[in-house]
Design brief:
The complex is a heterodimer of chains A (103) and B (150). Chain A is of the alpha+beta class. Chain A has five helices and three strands; from the N terminus they run ααβααββα. In chain A, strands 1-3-2 form a three-stranded antiparallel β-sheet. Chain B has one domain: 2-Layer Sandwich (Alpha-D-Glucose-1,6-Bisphosphate, Chain A, domain 4), CATH 3.30.530. Chain B has a seven-stranded antiparallel β-sheet. Classes of the chains: A alpha+beta (103), B alpha+beta (150).
Chain lengths: 103, 150
């Protein structure tokens, strides 16, 4: 299975829309596709990418697949910001402790 | 099930060898000297400055070549040299902002800087409650950062 970075997976507007719909609770594909300007197979394809990125997970109920947010994958987005702040604050520390910066 | 996942705030703490006044000054008045704009901004290399208006209600925005101005957020608490709160909101038309609080406290002749980036739920859950709007939420919060992940 190809690894997809969560930030890349959310880089697509349709996938973000699908992901946002899942934030209010688990849903089947047919419901996720309703009102979206793409076909159901396309929605399934987007869900596959979100699943490979660890952002959603699915299980079968009868013949339908129900999708929901995967909190662990979502945590990776937060982790990404965590790393961002580490880098940014290192640079801030250097700027604050250094001479008046010469930009 | 209507529950949404809750996400713990990002918390950072660091010691900076200068006064709280200087730390606050660099953090707020000299953002462009330390913020990694080449990778974490809307216009990357073309960013010419980052401005934080020093007052409650003040705006935080980047300036780019050609005079373009892109909002990043707004000051919701301005208490120099001890505390700053920002509503981080890259597109004001979108879902609710996340929040960044930064405090600066004296510590043995230096300064303890503590940062908390929170309200992650706002970014997604707020968007879910909005009418069908394909272009809200995550891109607004994450737009400046998505490039970095590539």
């Amino acid at each position: 299975m190809a690894y997809v970075h969560p930030m890349d997976a959310l880089g697509d507007p349709t996938r973000r829309a699908i992901f946002e719909r899942l934030r209010s609770g688990p849903k089947p594909v047919v419901e996720l596709a309703r009102g979206l300007p793409v076909s159901r197979p396309a929605v399934s394809q987007h869900l596959r990418v979100l699943r490979e990125a660890g952002l959603v997970r699915d299980h079968a109920v009868g013949t339908r697949r129900i999708y929901e947010v995967n909190p662990e994958g979502f945590g990776q987005v937060r982790t990404w910001f965590e790393d961002f702040w580490t880098d940014a604050l290192d640079a801030f520390k250097r700027a604050a402790e250094g001479e008046r910066s010469d930009r | 099930m209507t529950e949404t996942a809750t996400i713990a705030p990002v918390r950072k703490s660091l010691r900076v060898e200068c006064s709280p006044e200087r730390a606050f000054e660099v953090f707020t008045a000299q953002v462009a000297t330390w913020w990694p704009t080449k990778t974490h901004s809307i216009h990357h290399e073309a960013v010419t400055d980052v401005i934080l208006e020093p007052r409650e209600g003040g705006e935080l925005y980047e300036l780019a070549e050609g005079g373009k101005r892109e909002p990043w957020g707004r000051v919701t608490a301005w208490e120099p040299p001890n505390r700053l709160v920002l509503a981080w909101h890259v597109n004001p038309e979108g879902a609710g902002p996340t929040e960044i609080e930064v405090t600066f406290s004296p510590e043995d002749g230096a300064t303890r800087v503590e940062l908390e980036h929170r309200n992650w739920e706002q970014a997604g859950a707020g968007a879910a409650e909005m009418r069908d709007n394909y272009d809200s939420g995550w891109d607004l919060v994450l737009a400046p950062f998505v490039e970095k992940a590539r």
